[in-house]
Amino acid sequence: MGNYLTHYSCPRVLSKKRKSLPIETIFKLPSSAPSWPQVTGEGFAKGTIDLGEVEVCQISTFNKVWSTHEGGPDNLGATFFEPSLVPEGFHMLGSYSQPNNKPLFGWTLAAKDITNGSALTEPIDYTLVWSSESLKIKQDGNGYLWLPTPPDGYKATGLVVTASPNKPSVDKARCVRSDLTEPCENEAWLWGNDEFDVHSLRPTNRGTQALGVRVGTFVARPGGNNTQVSSSLACLKNVSPNTYSSMPNPTQIDALCGAYSPLLYFHPNEKYLPSSVNWYFENGALLYQKGEESKPVGIEPNGANLPQGGANDGLYWLDLPVDQNAKEKVKKGDLSSAQVYLHAKPMLGSTFTDLAIWVFYPFNGPATAKVGPLKISLGKIGEHIGDWEHLTLRVSNFSGELWMLYFSEHSKGQWVEASELEFAGGGGNKPVAYASLNGHALYPKPGTVLQGGGNIGIRNDTAKSKIVMDTGKGFSLVAGDYLGSTITEPPWLNFLRKWGPKIDYDTAEEFRKIEKVLIGKLRSAFRKFVNGLPNEIYGEEGPTGPKVKPNWSEDEAI
User: Fold this and answer.
1) What is the DSSP string of 411-477?
2) Hey, which bits of 454-548 come out as E strands?
3) pLDDT band (50, 70, 90) for residue 16
4) Most buried of the four, 88, 281, 379, 512, by CB within 10 Å?
5) Based on the domain organization, do 397 and 532 belong to the same domain?
6) Backbone phi, psi, residue 524, to 5°
7) Domain residues for 185?
8) Is residue 358 a contact partner of residue 277, using CB atoms and an 8 Å limit?
């Protein structure tokens, strides 16, 4: 129970004429998950989680009900399942679906009423949302999607799929009392065509204080605009007085980082590497105060003399050493001193733990543009002092297994499921990440990602090299509000001003230098592209530290 590795409980017979789809393979992490340290009275990785009046478990074993072989991501269709091997006393809340363009890897929750019997109830009926009978594409028989009709005061949390036009029995699934639910919204696109769309669901409100719990079900929207079906479904809510009882303690966090800490590869031409914050301070970083610019002061190794709290009001900022030789040394960083800084936070109603892995760079290098066939340096554009980047591990609190990894990419980023990550060789479950040249944006695969549109944009070049950082060797747990007094935050974490000064250089002049080598349509297209660049590319404002970022208390930006 709660096993994150998936399998079919009944194998399907495949036609020899059709190439196997990724969905017909089972994703497993490269190595078995370790046994997590356990403490009596704590609930991390115990298989079930008490949400107050409902106990839930993660079901990742499925019976296939229906599939289509066209439409959706990569036009490979999608497969629809119902959970199997549901433990005694637990009940299905809805069916599961995922695209056919990736291995089977997912889960849905099953629930058990732990009150007087009022938390869960059978639906009183079902409404047919959609059927595939008129679908003119390749499919395995016909599929039917049903919306449970809850009694007054209850909510459905997922649709039920059948391979028959007959309604499911009312004891097939359960509805949840309304006060034990939260609003939900569309998440990832799973499948669809011109007449129909299927999306996974997630809580509308997500963050360290939000109580919404992802159920792992999906919503179907006939015509692409059936808001009635979407609004009829809900997520669960954690109403337990011990909201954080399923969260990992510091010893378990250490074990999780030991198991899943990513390897970070830098471009072979990277000049500006990370360092520890202490190394940065010890090697001459300076604190400036508005009105006292001629009297910068050195910084204590742990940042003890930095202004604490307050707001990003422009009164203080950090900068490189004044001495030119020292400045050039610090800009290059020091990989041997570098360590990552962990922020542990509850997510999705404390059913998951997000481990944000923060990396500090003393300097962010200049950007490079692609303009048609040309690769052009943008001079000083993109440079700024003090650069914070991060990866985030999302781990199941049911089992301790890795579900997703977030890659920060400038002001946004992307979540990548474990089934689609690259893992380091040699055994173990360490995923791989790639930092872009100079800009340090993080990506799951090597290559070039163009920030912009068409044939013109900012290049984000990544490649595997001998310059690599194992984020598990030298990490420090610096924050986790739910852990209370067991964690002491370093003073530098509460420096909420800028980690670099405002840079004053003539961006217009930098662009004019570039336009001189362009002709005709390339020049006008480049000018249009420049006018649409976000402020972060110009590098005029020094960045703030981790605690000022929106994702400190909210979900990651995508």
Assistant:
1) TEEEEEEGGG--B-SSSS--BEEEEPTTT--EESSSEEEEEEETTEEEEEEE---S-EEETTSSEEE
2) 456-462, 468-470, 475-479
3) very low
4) 281
5) yes
6) -70, -35
7) 7-237
8) no
What's the one-letter identity of residue 539? G
Query: What global pTM score does this model have?
Result: 0.92
Where residue 25 falls (left for φ over 0; alpha for ψ -120 to 50; beta otherwise) is beta
The tally of domains found in the chain comes to 2
Residue that is written with structure tokens 């028989």 in the block: 141
What's the one-letter identity of residue 340? V
Enter the tokens of residue 135: 């679908």
Tokens representing 388 are: 């914070």
Measure the N-to-C terminal CA separation of the chain; round to a whole number of Å.
31
Do 272 and 412 sit in the same domain of this protein?
yes
* Long-range own/partner contacts, residues 18-24 (CB < 8 A, 24 or more apart): 18/69, 21/69, 21/76, 21/77, 21/100, 21/101, 22/76, 22/100, 22/101, 22/102, 22/103, 23/67, 23/79, 23/98, 23/99, 23/100, 23/101, 23/102, 23/103, 23/104, 24/104
Tell me, yes or no, whether 227 and 259 share the same domain.
Answer: no
Report whether 515 contacts 529 (CB < 8 A).
no
For the stretch 401-442, pLDDT in tens is 999 999 999 888 999 999 999 999 878 899 999 999 999 999
For the chain, what is the mean pLDDT?
Answer: 90
Q: How far is C-alpha 438 from the geometric centre of its chain's CA atoms?
A: 23
List the 7-8 sheet strands across, edge first: 7-8, 61-68, 78-83, 96-99
Q: Is 486 helix (H, G, I), strand (E, B) or coil?
A: helix
* Position 286 pLDDT exceeds 80: yes
Q: How many CA atoms lie within 13 A of 477 on its CB side?
A: 24
Distances in Å between the alpha carbon of 422 and those of 29, 432, 446, 460? 11, 6, 10, 19
Question: 3-class DSSP state for residue 261?
Answer: coil
Same domain, 187 and 272: no
Burial grade of 160 (CB within 10 A; 0-12, 13-18, 19 or more): buried
Integer Cα distance of 451 and 441 in angstroms = 11
pLDDT score of 10:
32
* Residue 140: exposure state from Cβ atoms within 10 A (0-12, 13-18, ≥19): middle
- Is residue 197 included in any domain, yes or no? yes
Task: Reply yes or no on whether the pLDDT at 62 is more than 60.
Answer: yes
pLDDT attached to residue 452:
73
222 and 282 co-located in one domain? no
How many other C-beta atoms can be found within 10 angstroms of the C-beta atom of residue 296? 17
Q: Which has the minimum average pLDDT: 199-213, 262-276, 523-537?
A: 523-537
Pair 399, 450 in one domain: yes
Distance between CA atoms of 503 and 500, rounded to whole angstroms? Answer: 9
Are 68 and 133 within 8 A, CB to CB? no
| pLDDT tens column, 103-135 | 999 999 999 999 988 999 999 999 999 999 988
Smallest Cα–Cα separation from 3: which of 114, 73, 86? Answer: 86
Per the domain annotation, does 245 fall within a domain?
no
Amino acid 241: pLDDT: 95
Structure tokens at 268: 């072979």
